[in-house]
Amino acid sequence: MEYTNLGRSGLSVSRLCLGTMNFGPETSEADSHAIMDRAHEHGLNFFDTANVYGWKKGEGVTENIIGNWFAKGGTRRERTVVATKLYGSMGDWPNETKLSALNIRRAADASLKRLQTDYIDLYQMHHVDRETPWDEIWEAFSVLRQQGKVIYFGSSNFAGWHIAQAAEAARTRGFLGLVSEQSIYNLMTRWVELEVLPAARHYGLGVIPWSPLHGGLLGGVLRKQREGGASRSASGRSADALEKYRDTIDAYEKLCAEIGEDPANVGLAWLLHQEGVTAPIIGPRTIEQLDNSLRAAELKLDADVLGKLDELFPAPAPNGSKPAPEAYAW
């Protein structure tokens, strides 16, 4: 497994990040523990979660599963860079959501208790809070850092100008600020290339793509359908998108077959070829899915394949194919 620094920080993380959103709702606690043990065997040290995962309000199901795994000992906690998030509602009363100083304090302490650890490596804002001033947010975060409860801070689902706002507000306080941004990013959803990626590169944030296979549409969905395999992409919004982009996805799968690689690994590898991307988040429900994802970390795509992928999934550019900021003007 290769490692890289998370943004401009000195923190070393694996080039694939283990997403834990399935732990609880889709994967039992015992199987979740086995997946995390196998991740360590493969050298993955970067795990991502959130206080709302498990989707039982206020229970923190997934964080509890990870905490019970840490409690098994054997240097599990010491070898793991654990990233969690706050923002989503954890209760029905006011101040149990978003980024007030009060909720930041309470949410951090609750996550620490569930995770059974005394510090969080990377604490991420799950969404921008348009009602809480940055001075309040950074003051609350600085207290957590002074207390040794959090080491690094990141954002998720921020626009480029939100990243700039947060970074400049932190700068005025002499604070390190954000070291990462977690965004939806994949071959089918490339909007972050217009402003989020340039902002992240400018301010030294590592980018952690979520939904790297666009809900399974880039994971060989058509082949799986032909083989009679079940797929999450067979219903709801994924099914609608599949019908809309069926020809493109078919061409993508044929390209992957030509180079002898699994579509899921090509989609992940493409992200690892993008400047500023630290580690795509993989969300295995089984050990087999985890094992199969490891190929992506070593897969090198040549210029010809990268070019063909750009033809199939063009970058969003208002002015031809130029990257931002030239995409907006000559």
Give a short synopsis of this structure:
This protein is α/β, with parallel strands linked by helices and about 325 residues long. It is about 40% helix and about 15% strand.
The helix/strand order is: EEEHEHEHEHEHEHEHHHHEHH
- State the total count of DSSP E strands: 10
Q: How would you classify the helix and strand content by structural class?
A: alpha/beta
Q: What characterizes the major β-sheet?
A: 8 strands, parallel
Shape label? globular
Q: Specify Rg, calculated over alpha carbons.
A: 20 Å
Unreliable spans: none
> DSSP strand (E) fraction?
5-15%
The percentage helix is 25-40%
- Please give the order of strands in the largest beta sheet: 9-8-7-6-5-4-3-10
- Span between termini: 41 Å
Mean pLDDT: 94
Number of helices: 12
Domain NADP-dependent oxidoreductase: 15-312
Organism: Lentzea sokolovensis
Protein name: Aldo/keto reductase
InterPro entries: AKR_Detox_Biosynth, NAD(P)_OxRdtase_dom_sf, NADP_OxRdtase_dom
Q: Explain this structure to me?
A:
This is Aldo/keto reductase. Residues 15-312 form the NADP-dependent oxidoreductase domain. InterPro entries: AKR_Detox_Biosynth (IPR050523), NAD(P)_OxRdtase_dom_sf (IPR036812), NADP_OxRdtase_dom (IPR023210). The chain has 330 residues and is of the alpha/beta class. Helix content is 38%, strand content 14%. The chain contains twelve helices and ten strands. It has helices at residues 29-41, 61-70, 101-115, 134-146, 160-172, 196-203, 221-226, 236-244, 246-258, 263-272, 287-293, 303-312; strands at 3-5, 12-14, 17-19, 46-48, 81-86, 120-125, 150-156, 178-184, 206-210, 281-282. The strands form two sheets. Strands 9-8-7-6-5-4-3-10 form an eight-stranded parallel β-sheet, covered by helices on one side. Strands 1-2 form a two-stranded antiparallel ribbon. Helix 1 (29-41) links the parallel strand 3 and strand 4 (46-48). Helix 3 runs parallel beside helix 4 and helix 9 packs antiparallel against helix 12 (303-312). The longest helix is centred in the N-terminal third of the chain and has 15 residues, at 101-115. It is globular. The N and C termini lie far apart (41 Å). The model has no long low-confidence stretch (mean pLDDT 94).
